[in-house]
């Protein structure tokens, strides 16, 4: 799908196909299932969403998202995503593509996350700031 307008992020910022850069691969993103995301999808507790194939903790945005609570809570529905399927939301593709700075911040945050090191089997969560609205924490890769 084409970019909505010139003031929205372009598809080259899509992080869906980025892979960890460390070689040999000692650690990788934690795989997170659809069921686990759904367990964290309410307005009253932790709120997780899938963005370009990465699971993020977006709890900090529940009260500050500029599009409002209803829009934020619909992130994982087929209507909100770029793919027309559950968990298909993208900052850089589809009808809900965000402004270039938002797409770039998320792209850069995912690259930092995938380049990080960890003592355990999975990469450590990474924070991405979206001033003045809050931060998201990249938790792992969606395994739907």
Please give a structural write-up.
With 144 residues, this protein is of the alpha+beta class. Helix content is 19%, strand content 17%. It is built from three helices and five strands, in the order βαββααββ. Strands 1, 2, 3, 4 and 5 form a five-stranded mixed sheet that branches. β4 and β5 form a beta hairpin. The model is unreliable at 1-8 (pLDDT under 50).
Blueprint of the fold:
Blueprint: E1 31-32, H1 34-39, E2 48-51, E3 54-57, H2 69-73, H3 100-115, E4 126-130, E5 134-142
Parallel strand pairs: 1-5
Antiparallel strand pairs: 2-3, 3-5, 4-5
Tell me the number of strands: 5
Question: How much helix, percentage-wise, in residues?
Answer: 10-25%
Our estimate of the beta-strand percent is 15-25%
Span between termini: 22 Å
Largest sheet: 5 strands, mixed
Q: Categorize the overall geometry.
A: globular
Category by helix and strand content: alpha+beta
Average pLDDT score: 80
Gyration radius (Cα, Å) is: 14 Å
The helix-strand sequence is EHEEHHEE
Low-confidence stretches: 1-8
Number of helices: 3
